[in-house]
User: Fold Inositol polyphosphate-4-phosphatase type II B from Hucho hucho.
Amino acid sequence: DSARVHIIPGHSRFRRPLSWPGLGDPLFLTGVTFPPEYPASPETLVKLTVYDVRDKARDNVSKPLSVSFLGSATFSVSDLLRSKDDQLTLNLRSSDGVLAVGTVLVSRVNMGEMEEGDMDHITADVQQAQKSRSPPDVSASTNAFFKNPVCKVYKFQTVDSKWMLVREQMEECTLSFSIPRQLLHLYIQEDMRRIQELSDLGELSPHWDNLRKEVIARYGQVIAVYQETLAELNKITGPSFKPSCSKAQRYLEFIPINLHTQRMRVTCPRQTDAFYDVITVGAPAAHFQGFKGGGLQRLLSRHEAEKKSTAYQCIYYSPEHTAKAQEVLHSVGHLQPLISGLADQLLQAAQQHSMAGLREALKTLAGKTEQFVHALKDELVKSALLALHAAQPGYVTKNQNQTLEDGQAPLKNQDSIPCHKEYDEEEWDRVWADVAKSLNCVIAMVDKLQEQEPININQEQPIPKQVLADVITSHNPEGDWREQLCPLLVRLKECVAEVVVRARRAMTFVLLQEAACSIPQGLFLKQRRDVVFSQALAALACGFVMRLYAGMEDKGFLRQLHLVGLVAQFESLLSTYSEEIGMLEDMEVGISDLHRVVFKITQAKTDDPCDLQPLVIGRRDHYTVEVPLPRLAFQTLPHEIKEGKALQVYPVLFNVGINEQQTIADRFGDISLQERINQRNFEILDSYYKSLRDKVPSECNFQTQMDLKDLLGTLGQNVVTKKRKNVEILWLAGTICRRLNGIRFTSCKSAKDRTSMSVTLEQCALLRDEHQLNKDYFIRALDCMRREGCRIENVQKNIKCRKYAFNMLQLMAFPKIYRPPEGTYGKVDS
Assistant:
């Protein structure tokens, strides 16, 4: 049970010692932490080994560091706990254990300590990571999502010579695997339903039947692949994240890369503790499928153009048409059982002779039925029914040479379709109109029954049942209310069912065309889009849960959540060159697809971690993520959230490449993708701010409004300014997101190296701007976090090596503030 710590100075101050008051030698600082696999106890022994590291970069580029052993010392945790001043002074011994070659001071720092002193303490916490993640006491609940914490603690001096304690904690998130598993299950269910719907189209002419068989076969292949992937994922136990070295592994392609949460907690004298959260994740991209032809944005545009030019064997429907077809299918599938259930409620109220219940049930039934009819009053449904009849043996349109509406291509194989019966184009209008007529009959009957209801003069005295029965019988010789309503409601159900059958077949035929025109490339692209969306949604769900638990006691935040929604700002450091431009194209589509997601808060059945896991429901064009909360926490929420209101999230993406590949792109390549992404997402962010300002003015007081307005104005200027590696875009977008109570994400290819530089920079900038970090400490704090903090631990977790994957030539292309300290980088496989 021993831990070995190497103290390897790589800081400029180690080459040029600082002059400390009363000291002639430089001060070397490092930290010790105990990982979960080696928990600390009083008997735990810690061995400190000190090396002399000299910089030889000027003499030998290939081996810039010279390392030689100085000495070592050993102590137990109990020795440190029993020490008077929480400090131990240990003698360093030579390798033979005889000579004393120096001393080492070991100190223990607890969160919340505020000691005055002359010395700069930058140290790490030796305690096990605490479970508390958020200001409210909800740590037990968050244990269901966040695992394997790594914690570091620093002590810095402020401009007024006070001391602040900074704690950063990094954790894995179980949603990395649970959300993709749920999505895969939904993908499989949806595709199996599609196969069933295609089979239910009935008899088709040979041409269309062959296309149907081919499409069904392709869907079957996708289902088989997804089932195999899901089976492999269900076997995985252990860590809750996918390391960067596994980003191209087939069975892990739906899992986000290196997803971690990171929280910085700042404790200052006479101030409330401040918390700053960020989610780090590799760019959502289909690494297993590769980027030879580019990413999703380019591939989808190219495929859409090819569909238009080669749609000779099928009818071309635009993406808007196919989206409308999916919407109609969902609407009729959702509304039919609702209408049927409401009709049964109406009959039950009639049987109970409850006029109040009758009117209430009728009001809801009328609303849902009108919504049902409105969903079907679309020319796409009518034209699709016409096309379906033309594709069946024995049917043809009135005009055999007719070109379908909305620019659709004519059927070029109509000569092969038997022409026995003409299709009546007005039939569909009559069918769905019958639904409205049936509803009107029901309304009229309820009105008639209301006229027959006996008037109770004394409202406080109920009418005796026998008297009520006599009155009803005298006015209704044909029977009771239920008997009079029942045939009308049966007719309504029959009309609705007939419409559903026709509409479902028509919209399925539209989707058959979309799939037939897309074979085989379209289904491959759908798989790619599924993969990217799965990674993006897992990250978003992680961020939403983290932000929700952190804001449970913030009434303003909760009001903003249900009135406007949350902004989710993704920061990307990908270059617009080579493979990374394909990753960025994937990421753009994946983040944009998150607009199809809403969240709902529910009350958990129990406080057991299994019952607190978010549940994904829905289909590809619309998903709902239900987030269960413990009963006590749920009861504190606003009424609208408890009633199940859908909570919107507004994802925005800003990208600025910073590496040597971006240098090539800036000088010789094309950066239009980055410019377009930043401009488009600035408009989304600006629109969100205006909506928040109008709907929740209390969250935007005058000063806040002015600050946000100025920040947005500056961001708007920067996204249109032609400036290389304009990282100010990222800083401004991140600041605006935090001011808007949003969710922050930071990404690069693997969320390991460039992401680490960005996260540590953001943390130190927050300490400087929000907590008065002494300006003399800024670079030292930055280097310390990069050398000793959570991010170097993230590198270790991913590649089993404590080196950022940069070389000296690469770093020369980086903005200076994004360069790690010497001794912490070296070219390794990422």
